[in-house]
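Let's sit down with a protein and look at its sequence and fold side by side. Once you have written the record down, we can walk along the chain together.
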Amino acid sequence: MSKAVTSGTWPTITINPPNLSGLTTDHVTWGVPAGGGQSGYVFRGGEVDVRTDGTEFTLGTFTHENFPITGMPQQEFDVDLTVDVAFEDGTTAAFSFRFHHNETPNVGPNPEDLVDLPTFVSPQTVTIDGTEYAVLISGFKQGGQVVRRFVSQENSANSADIVAIFAVSGKPDPVIHHVRAKGEVKGSQADEYVEIVNRGTAPADISGWKLGADDRGQDFVFPAGTVLAPGQRIRVYTNESHPEWGGFNYGIKRPIWNDKGDSAVLSDTAGAAVSTFGYGDKAAKP
Protein backbone atom coordinates (compact mmCIF):
# COMPACT_ATOMS: atom_id res chain seq x y z
CA MET A 1 0.00 0.00 0.00
CA SER A 2 1.20 3.50 -0.80
CA LYS A 3 -0.10 7.04 -0.65
CA ALA A 4 -1.29 9.26 -3.47
CA VAL A 5 -2.88 12.68 -3.80
CA THR A 6 -5.85 13.30 -6.09
CA SER A 7 -7.07 16.53 -7.67
CA GLY A 8 -9.54 17.23 -10.45
CA THR A 9 -10.69 19.65 -13.12
CA TRP A 10 -13.73 19.94 -15.41
CA PRO A 11 -12.26 20.45 -18.91
CA THR A 12 -15.34 20.24 -21.16
CA ILE A 13 -19.13 20.40 -21.28
CA THR A 14 -21.14 19.13 -24.26
CA ILE A 15 -23.41 22.20 -24.57
CA ASN A 16 -22.88 25.93 -24.56
CA PRO A 17 -24.98 27.20 -21.64
CA PRO A 18 -25.22 30.87 -20.66
CA ASN A 19 -22.82 32.18 -18.03
CA LEU A 20 -20.50 29.17 -18.34
CA SER A 21 -17.53 29.68 -16.03
CA GLY A 22 -14.74 27.65 -14.46
CA LEU A 23 -13.80 25.19 -17.20
CA THR A 24 -10.35 23.64 -16.58
CA THR A 25 -10.75 24.33 -12.84
CA ASP A 26 -12.22 22.21 -10.04
CA HIS A 27 -15.41 24.33 -9.95
CA VAL A 28 -17.55 24.80 -13.07
CA THR A 29 -20.86 26.73 -13.10
CA TRP A 30 -23.59 27.47 -15.65
CA GLY A 31 -27.05 28.98 -16.19
CA VAL A 32 -28.97 32.18 -15.48
CA PRO A 33 -29.91 32.25 -11.77
CA ALA A 34 -33.64 32.19 -11.09
CA GLY A 35 -33.21 32.45 -7.34
CA GLY A 36 -30.33 31.33 -5.13
CA GLY A 37 -27.47 31.12 -7.63
CA GLN A 38 -26.01 29.19 -10.53
CA SER A 39 -25.80 25.45 -10.85
CA GLY A 40 -22.42 23.78 -11.06
CA TYR A 41 -20.07 20.94 -10.19
CA VAL A 42 -17.19 20.89 -7.69
CA PHE A 43 -14.53 18.19 -7.25
CA ARG A 44 -12.28 18.10 -4.20
CA GLY A 45 -9.51 15.53 -4.01
CA GLY A 46 -7.12 14.65 -1.22
CA GLU A 47 -4.71 12.03 0.09
CA VAL A 48 -5.71 8.42 -0.52
CA ASP A 49 -4.32 4.97 0.28
CA VAL A 50 -3.51 3.15 -2.95
CA ARG A 51 -4.30 -0.55 -2.69
CA THR A 52 -4.54 -3.04 -5.53
CA ASP A 53 -6.48 -5.79 -3.75
CA GLY A 54 -9.94 -4.49 -4.68
CA THR A 55 -10.25 -2.29 -1.60
CA GLU A 56 -12.44 0.76 -2.20
CA PHE A 57 -11.14 4.24 -1.51
CA THR A 58 -12.48 7.78 -1.81
CA LEU A 59 -11.27 9.27 -5.08
CA GLY A 60 -12.63 12.66 -4.05
CA THR A 61 -15.78 14.51 -3.07
CA PHE A 62 -18.32 15.54 -5.70
CA THR A 63 -20.66 18.47 -5.05
CA HIS A 64 -23.57 19.55 -7.20
CA GLU A 65 -24.66 23.12 -6.56
CA ASN A 66 -28.31 22.73 -7.52
CA PHE A 67 -30.23 25.99 -7.81
CA PRO A 68 -33.04 26.97 -10.20
CA ILE A 69 -31.64 28.35 -13.46
CA THR A 70 -32.96 29.39 -16.86
CA GLY A 71 -31.57 29.76 -20.36
CA MET A 72 -30.33 26.18 -20.78
CA PRO A 73 -30.25 25.05 -24.44
CA GLN A 74 -31.22 21.52 -23.39
CA GLN A 75 -32.12 19.59 -20.26
CA GLU A 76 -29.56 16.78 -20.50
CA PHE A 77 -25.85 17.12 -21.23
CA ASP A 78 -22.43 15.74 -20.25
CA VAL A 79 -19.64 17.26 -18.18
CA ASP A 80 -16.16 15.71 -18.28
CA LEU A 81 -13.89 15.30 -15.27
CA THR A 82 -10.13 14.72 -15.27
CA VAL A 83 -8.67 13.34 -12.05
CA ASP A 84 -4.92 13.70 -11.60
CA VAL A 85 -3.23 11.22 -9.25
CA ALA A 86 0.26 11.88 -7.89
CA PHE A 87 1.83 8.79 -6.29
CA GLU A 88 4.38 9.07 -3.51
CA ASP A 89 7.12 7.56 -5.72
CA GLY A 90 6.77 10.48 -8.14
CA THR A 91 4.59 8.66 -10.69
CA THR A 92 1.68 10.71 -12.02
CA ALA A 93 -1.41 9.64 -13.95
CA ALA A 94 -4.59 11.27 -15.24
CA PHE A 95 -7.94 9.50 -15.42
CA SER A 96 -11.05 10.81 -17.18
CA PHE A 97 -14.75 10.27 -16.49
CA ARG A 98 -17.97 11.62 -17.98
CA PHE A 99 -20.89 12.82 -15.84
CA HIS A 100 -24.33 12.82 -17.48
CA HIS A 101 -26.46 15.63 -16.09
CA ASN A 102 -30.26 15.82 -16.14
CA GLU A 103 -31.40 19.36 -15.25
CA THR A 104 -34.96 18.26 -14.47
CA PRO A 105 -37.87 20.75 -14.36
CA ASN A 106 -38.28 22.32 -10.94
CA VAL A 107 -41.92 21.27 -10.73
CA GLY A 108 -43.81 18.05 -10.20
CA PRO A 109 -43.39 15.24 -7.65
CA ASN A 110 -39.68 14.64 -8.39
CA PRO A 111 -37.91 17.96 -9.03
CA GLU A 112 -34.47 16.62 -8.03
CA ASP A 113 -31.71 16.77 -10.62
CA LEU A 114 -30.03 13.49 -11.57
CA VAL A 115 -26.36 12.74 -12.23
CA ASP A 116 -25.22 9.48 -13.84
CA LEU A 117 -21.93 8.09 -15.10
CA PRO A 118 -22.31 6.66 -18.63
CA THR A 119 -19.19 4.54 -18.00
CA PHE A 120 -17.60 3.75 -14.67
CA VAL A 121 -14.10 2.81 -15.90
CA SER A 122 -11.41 5.27 -16.93
CA PRO A 123 -9.99 4.67 -20.43
CA GLN A 124 -6.55 5.55 -19.09
CA THR A 125 -4.41 3.09 -17.11
CA VAL A 126 -1.37 3.16 -14.85
CA THR A 127 1.23 0.46 -14.23
CA ILE A 128 1.77 -0.42 -10.58
CA ASP A 129 4.38 -3.07 -9.68
CA GLY A 130 4.35 -4.32 -13.26
CA THR A 131 0.56 -4.71 -13.55
CA GLU A 132 -1.72 -2.44 -15.56
CA TYR A 133 -4.61 -0.91 -13.60
CA ALA A 134 -7.54 1.33 -14.44
CA VAL A 135 -9.66 3.33 -12.00
CA LEU A 136 -13.14 1.90 -11.52
CA ILE A 137 -15.76 4.11 -9.90
CA SER A 138 -18.08 2.04 -7.69
CA GLY A 139 -20.50 4.92 -7.33
CA PHE A 140 -21.55 7.85 -5.18
CA LYS A 141 -21.66 7.30 -1.43
CA GLN A 142 -24.94 8.85 -0.26
CA GLY A 143 -26.61 8.18 3.08
CA GLY A 144 -24.08 5.48 3.93
CA GLN A 145 -24.78 3.52 0.72
CA VAL A 146 -22.89 3.43 -2.55
CA VAL A 147 -25.36 4.21 -5.36
CA ARG A 148 -24.97 4.40 -9.13
CA ARG A 149 -27.14 7.50 -9.55
CA PHE A 150 -26.62 10.79 -7.68
CA VAL A 151 -29.97 12.34 -6.72
CA SER A 152 -29.53 16.04 -6.05
CA GLN A 153 -32.07 18.02 -4.06
CA GLU A 154 -33.14 21.42 -5.34
CA ASN A 155 -32.00 24.70 -3.75
CA SER A 156 -28.92 23.27 -2.04
CA ALA A 157 -25.34 22.16 -2.53
CA ASN A 158 -25.36 18.35 -2.37
CA SER A 159 -22.20 16.30 -1.85
CA ALA A 160 -21.17 12.67 -2.02
CA ASP A 161 -17.86 10.85 -1.90
CA ILE A 162 -16.84 9.20 -5.16
CA VAL A 163 -15.86 5.65 -4.21
CA ALA A 164 -13.33 3.97 -6.51
CA ILE A 165 -11.05 0.95 -6.93
CA PHE A 166 -7.70 0.41 -8.64
CA ALA A 167 -8.69 -2.64 -10.72
CA VAL A 168 -6.67 -4.81 -13.10
CA SER A 169 -7.32 -3.61 -16.63
CA GLY A 170 -9.54 -5.79 -18.80
CA LYS A 171 -10.62 -8.36 -16.20
CA PRO A 172 -13.90 -9.01 -14.30
CA ASP A 173 -13.85 -9.56 -10.54
CA PRO A 174 -17.26 -10.49 -9.03
CA VAL A 175 -17.17 -10.81 -5.22
CA ILE A 176 -19.53 -10.89 -2.26
CA HIS A 177 -19.38 -7.44 -0.71
CA HIS A 178 -21.86 -7.57 2.16
CA VAL A 179 -24.38 -9.79 3.93
CA ARG A 180 -27.34 -8.25 5.70
CA ALA A 181 -28.10 -11.17 7.97
CA LYS A 182 -30.85 -9.73 10.13
CA GLY A 183 -33.82 -8.19 8.36
CA GLU A 184 -36.50 -5.96 9.78
CA VAL A 185 -39.49 -7.94 8.50
CA LYS A 186 -40.79 -9.75 11.55
CA GLY A 187 -40.67 -13.53 11.37
CA SER A 188 -39.60 -14.12 7.77
CA GLN A 189 -36.78 -11.52 7.62
CA ALA A 190 -37.66 -11.28 3.93
CA ASP A 191 -35.44 -8.20 3.59
CA GLU A 192 -32.19 -10.06 4.34
CA TYR A 193 -29.83 -9.86 1.39
CA VAL A 194 -26.37 -10.62 0.02
CA GLU A 195 -24.73 -7.87 -2.03
CA ILE A 196 -22.39 -8.80 -4.89
CA VAL A 197 -20.22 -6.31 -6.78
CA ASN A 198 -18.09 -6.59 -9.90
CA ARG A 199 -14.81 -4.98 -8.83
CA GLY A 200 -13.32 -5.58 -12.28
CA THR A 201 -12.99 -3.40 -15.34
CA ALA A 202 -14.70 -5.90 -17.69
CA PRO A 203 -18.26 -7.32 -17.58
CA ALA A 204 -18.73 -10.42 -15.40
CA ASP A 205 -21.08 -13.11 -16.76
CA ILE A 206 -22.33 -15.03 -13.71
CA SER A 207 -25.06 -16.97 -15.50
CA GLY A 208 -25.47 -20.32 -13.77
CA TRP A 209 -23.30 -19.33 -10.82
CA LYS A 210 -24.52 -20.29 -7.36
CA LEU A 211 -24.87 -18.26 -4.17
CA GLY A 212 -25.06 -20.54 -1.17
CA ALA A 213 -24.96 -20.50 2.61
CA ASP A 214 -23.25 -23.01 4.91
CA ASP A 215 -26.45 -25.03 5.21
CA ARG A 216 -27.46 -27.39 2.41
CA GLY A 217 -30.47 -26.52 0.28
CA GLN A 218 -29.98 -22.76 0.60
CA ASP A 219 -28.70 -22.11 -2.89
CA PHE A 220 -29.63 -19.47 -5.44
CA VAL A 221 -28.62 -20.00 -9.09
CA PHE A 222 -28.31 -16.91 -11.26
CA PRO A 223 -30.42 -17.10 -14.43
CA ALA A 224 -29.01 -17.03 -17.95
CA GLY A 225 -28.03 -13.56 -19.09
CA THR A 226 -26.92 -12.32 -15.67
CA VAL A 227 -24.03 -10.02 -16.53
CA LEU A 228 -22.59 -7.44 -14.13
CA ALA A 229 -21.14 -4.30 -15.65
CA PRO A 230 -17.90 -2.96 -14.14
CA GLY A 231 -18.69 -1.61 -10.68
CA GLN A 232 -22.28 -2.85 -10.76
CA ARG A 233 -23.86 -4.06 -7.51
CA ILE A 234 -26.71 -6.54 -7.21
CA ARG A 235 -28.51 -8.03 -4.23
CA VAL A 236 -30.11 -11.42 -3.66
CA TYR A 237 -32.91 -10.98 -1.13
CA THR A 238 -34.51 -13.72 0.92
CA ASN A 239 -38.05 -13.00 -0.24
CA GLU A 240 -38.31 -9.46 -1.64
CA SER A 241 -37.96 -8.19 -5.20
CA HIS A 242 -36.03 -4.96 -5.75
CA PRO A 243 -35.63 -4.24 -9.49
CA GLU A 244 -33.12 -1.48 -8.77
CA TRP A 245 -30.82 -4.18 -7.33
CA GLY A 246 -31.43 -6.74 -10.06
CA GLY A 247 -34.73 -8.21 -8.80
CA PHE A 248 -33.16 -11.43 -7.42
CA ASN A 249 -34.51 -13.35 -4.41
CA TYR A 250 -34.53 -16.87 -2.98
CA GLY A 251 -38.33 -16.91 -2.74
CA ILE A 252 -38.11 -18.49 0.70
CA LYS A 253 -40.60 -17.48 3.41
CA ARG A 254 -38.22 -18.05 6.32
CA PRO A 255 -34.86 -16.53 7.32
CA ILE A 256 -31.82 -17.89 5.50
CA TRP A 257 -28.86 -16.17 7.08
CA ASN A 258 -27.90 -17.02 10.67
CA ASP A 259 -28.05 -13.83 12.73
CA LYS A 260 -25.02 -14.87 14.80
CA GLY A 261 -22.75 -15.73 11.91
CA ASP A 262 -22.52 -17.63 8.65
CA SER A 263 -20.55 -17.83 5.40
CA ALA A 264 -21.88 -16.86 1.98
CA VAL A 265 -20.17 -18.55 -0.95
CA LEU A 266 -20.29 -17.53 -4.63
CA SER A 267 -19.37 -20.46 -6.89
CA ASP A 268 -18.90 -20.63 -10.66
CA THR A 269 -20.52 -23.16 -13.00
CA ALA A 270 -17.75 -25.68 -12.27
CA GLY A 271 -18.53 -25.49 -8.55
CA ALA A 272 -15.32 -23.64 -7.66
CA ALA A 273 -15.66 -21.05 -4.89
CA VAL A 274 -14.91 -17.64 -6.40
CA SER A 275 -15.73 -15.53 -3.34
CA THR A 276 -16.41 -16.41 0.30
CA PHE A 277 -17.71 -13.88 2.80
CA GLY A 278 -17.88 -14.75 6.50
CA TYR A 279 -19.67 -12.53 8.99
CA GLY A 280 -20.39 -12.60 12.72
CA ASP A 281 -18.71 -15.57 14.38
CA LYS A 282 -17.64 -16.81 10.92
CA ALA A 283 -15.86 -13.59 10.02
CA ALA A 284 -12.20 -13.81 9.10
CA LYS A 285 -9.93 -13.14 12.06
CA PRO A 286 -7.65 -10.09 11.66
